[in-house]
Design brief:
By secondary structure, the chain is an alpha/beta fold. 51% of the residues lie in helices and 6% in strands. It has two domains: 161 residues, no CATH class; 294 residues, Rossmann fold, CATH 3.40.50. β2, α11 and β3 form a beta-alpha-beta unit.
Length: 565
């Protein structure tokens, strides 16, 4: 054993290659260049460097496998490549690869400008920052290759001694299994578990905080007050924000010029009750206490991962209906959406429990006096509310008086079903479902008129931007070109964007990091568009297009969603 280690340390056994795999380098350069091609959203230079570095390593691995297969085939055929030819090929690949990296990096500035222009950002890119892209890519690739070669070394250290006792194939298999076991154990048991524990700990602390300027309410129409069955300190940070920033009767009167009521807002936090069922029952009791079932409009709202509800989705209803509204929501997690998305079952179970409890009580009320029941959800909240009706359009339209879903995720059951059933010729980013009598999709208010056919009742609206990676990222991107890249494309998708196997999946996944770093109307930012959507869905009496425009202007300062919410 000692002799074996000494011999391989001296280089005679080549446990790890001293020189790079040149076929791997060639494919790595190709993947680097492709990673600079346009995606959905602009990227910071450091993020582009990260994307390029990871892409290059994946390409290197593919190229290394191809080279190994070619060598085996040539050896089987008895063909040998002369050393001089190998040196020439390597030199040519080195020169061409370096030239390709420099040329494509320079040209990608133009591509990046086109993507920035598509989302109404200035097309200029800081040249010295973009020049650092290949530097970051090399550092990232080198680190990942170092890790990969360390794993390879560990595998051979295990397999080589076994080769003297068992067949070589068995020894190699054992080495791979041991290495895989160690890697999975380290990643899951140490890195991943440690990271998730740290995120959970930080999220738990944040959930116990209260934003500046938010105070416990004393109105009987809000949860968390002195007579509420949902104590203030159990609502979570986002729940306290929701009830603590409720629109006031004075604000509504100032906008409409007519007498108004204090809106009802009910929120039940994770800490308010022990189980999902108990929290849902408590939400119904809170609606009864606050008089929510006697209002004109009752909205069941799905939350994002942290329990957050976008004010752009909750406030318009209160202004449009003079405060004669009730809104109810229930927290299912305090983790950011990108973490809690890993456990979608919680979102689905919470949405189903809340809606069922509210609906069961609502249906017992006299039909001529009960409120109009609507549902709302943004991002993971839309998944929660779709799950509440089992992803069925028939259940949605039979059990509700309208629905608004903003920035749905790729896994939304109803969204997937009706998008797949769209009329031939209608684009995936703005599908026409049936004759548009029940469901319509929009990125701008003019889209509500598509198709030009009567729009019946109840109405459901999906707001989705063509450049929103939350909507368009999915595992299928790895192997299948998506329909939303067909022409015509959405106005905010670069005409230069192309689909590449695996690479586009990775690019759009990285776009998620900048989903809320673009102007309103692009990415995962929907601005005041929910205001016009609610006007179309609920059609308040004596409400005009001018009122919608005034309200949208008033609500422009409401905080937009972030990827970490």
């Amino acid at each position: 054993m000692t002799e074996w280690v000494r011999r391989h340390a001296s280089g005679s056994g080549r446990v790890v290659r001293r020189r790079p795999c040149w076929c791997g380098v060639a494919v790595a350069v190709l993947c680097y260049c492709l990673s600079l091609t346009p995606s959905l959203l602009p990227r910071a230079w450091w993020l582009q460097g990260l994307v390029a570095g990871v892409s290059a390593v994946v390409g290197y691995a593919v190229g290394a496998v191809l080279e190994t297969l070619v060598r085996l085939m040539l050896r089987w055929a008895g063909f040998r490549i002369r050393p001089r030819v190998r040196r020439i090929v390597r030199a040519a690949l080195g020169v061409l690869g370096a030239a390709a990296v420099v040329t494509v990096t320079a040209w990608s500035v133009r591509w990046e400008g086109e993507v920035r222009r598509a989302v109404t950002l200035p097309p200029q890119v800081v040249w010295w920052q973009w020049a650092l892209v290949p530097v970051v890519a090399v550092v990232v690739a080198a680190l990942l290759l170092l890790i990969g070669r360390a794993v390879r070394l560990g595998t051979r250290l295990v397999a080589r001694p076994l080769g003297a006792q068992v067949p070589r194939a068995v020894a190699c298999a054992v080495g791979v299994v041991v290495a895989a076991f160690v890697i999975v154990g380290v990643v899951q048991g140490f890195l991943l578990r440690g990271a998730l524990d740290a995120i959970e700990s930080a999220a738990s602390l944040a959930d116990q905080g209260t934003a500046a300027g938010v105070h416990q309410p004393d109105l009987p129409t809000l949860s968390g007050g002195p007579r509420s069955a949902a104590p203030w300190d159990t609502l979570g940070a986002q729940g306290r924000d929701f009830v603590g920033t409720a629109t006031t009767r004075a604000d509504i009167t100032a906008f409409t010029g007519r007498p108004a009521r204090d809106p009802v807002r009910v929120y039940v936090g994770l800490r308010t009750a022990g189980t999902v069922g108990e929290r849902a029952d408590l939400a119904v009791r809170e609606l009864e206490r606050t008089g929510g079932f006697s209002r004109k409009v009752l909205a069941v709202m799905g939350t994002t991962g942290t329990g957050w509800i976008n004010g752009q989705g909750s406030k318009p209803l209160e202004y449009m209906w003079g405060g004669d509204t009730a809104e109810v929501a229930m927290q299912y997690s305090y983790l950011p959406s990108w973490v809690s998305a890993l456990t979608e079952d919680e979102a689905a179970a919470t949405g189903r429990a809340l809606f069922t409890a509210v609906y069961d009580k609502w249906r017992t009320l006299p039909a001529d006096s009960r409120p109009r029941l609507v549902v709302y959800g943004e991002s993971l909240g839309s998944f929660s509310m779709e799950s509440a009706v089992d992803g069925s359009l028939a259940r949605l339209t039979s059990k509700t008086g309208g629905a608004l879903f903003v920035g749905p995720t790729y896994d939304n059951p109803l969204w997937k079903r009706i998008t797949a059933q769209r009329q031939p010729g209608s684009p995936e980013w703005r599908p026409v479902v049936g004759d548009g009598a029940q469901v319509r999709f929009a990125q701008v208010p003019a889209d509500y008129a598509i198709p030009p056919a009567p729009w019946g009742e109840p109405r459901a609206v999906y707001l989705q931007n063509g450049s929103d990676p939350v909507v368009w990222w999915s595992p299928s991107l790895a192997l299948h070109e998506p329909d939303w890249l067909e022409r015509p494309r959405a106005r905010d998708v670069s005409p230069a964007m192309r689909w590449y196997p695996l690479l586009t999946f990775w690019q759009v996944a990285c776009d998620l990091a900048g989903a809320d770093s673009v102007p309103d109307g692009f990415g995962h930012r929907y601005g005041t568009l929910p205001t016009s959507a609610w006007a179309e869905i609920t059609r308040p009496p004596d409400w005009t297009a001018a009122d919608t425009a005034r309200l949208a202007a008033l609500l422009e300062s409401v905080r937009e969603p972030g990827l970490l919410d």
